[in-house]
Every structure is written in C-alpha cells, then in structure tokens.
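Consider a protein example.
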Amino acid sequence: MPVHHFNLNDDTVSVEAPEDTPLLWVLRDLLGVTGPKYGCGVGVCGACTSHLDGGAFRPCIQPVGGVAGRRVTTIEGLGGEGLHPVQQAWIDEDVAQCGFCQPGQIMAAVALLRRNPDPSDADIDAAMSDNVCRCGTYVRIRAAIKRAAWQLRREGMGK
C-alpha cells in the first residue's frame, strides 16, 4: 500500500492508504482529525470543508493521492495557539445551534475573507451557498462573517 506524505495543520504526516481513499476518511479514521464532518460524501453539503494550499475544498471527494506534498488545514489547525477571528466571531454572534456544520462553515468563511476582505451580503450568500446548515443559522453566519471581516481589517490581517 502506498505511503502519502503531506502537511496537515503545519505538521508533516505520512499515512498508508490506497491512492483513491477519500482524504476525509484518512483524516478522520487514520489520523484522528475529526473536525471535518461526514455529511454527504459527494461534496455538496460542505460539512467537511477544509483548506488545500489555502483554498476551500471538500476532502470527502479528494483522493489522498492528490494531496502529496500539499498543505491541508482543518478546523483544528485554523487558529494556531488561539482562536482565529472567524472562530471568535462565531462565538460572539452565537452562530452554532446543533454545531454539526460549523467547522465547514467556518473554513468556507475564512476562505471567503482571504479572497474578499470586505464582502457584501450578496458576496457572503454566494460564497456560503454550498454549505448547508440544517438549523438555518444563515443570518447569524452572515453576521459573524461581517464581524470577522471588520476585525481582520482592523487588525490588518486580511489573510
């Protein structure tokens, strides 16, 4: 079985798995990284959203063989030593209800703010439309993104 080497949350990891194994299974079952959630398994719900080389992607449809030498960031690696401003905004706006989709929502929001540090409501809605929240906390999600955008701009952390 092939061994795959990639960067996960700023650490180099090696894992033995078939090339076509979805990265989500490698993360959750082999590496114990459970922040990305299994929602649909076909890339449409957004519960597993993480970052690949800084951009949002769906590890449920990404084969582990395609991440060799690349940088994967999950919700666990987002804040470093503390909370990322988006995570803090989620708390401040009391976004989570059941919480299941929130890691994917947060990772999608961070990717949005890297691309667009001052998004309009329409920008937020468009960027977040592929991340499903069964509890319907979309208004609070939008408020948290606006709060985080303001905080990031204020701190000069547009990335």
The chain has five helices and five strands.
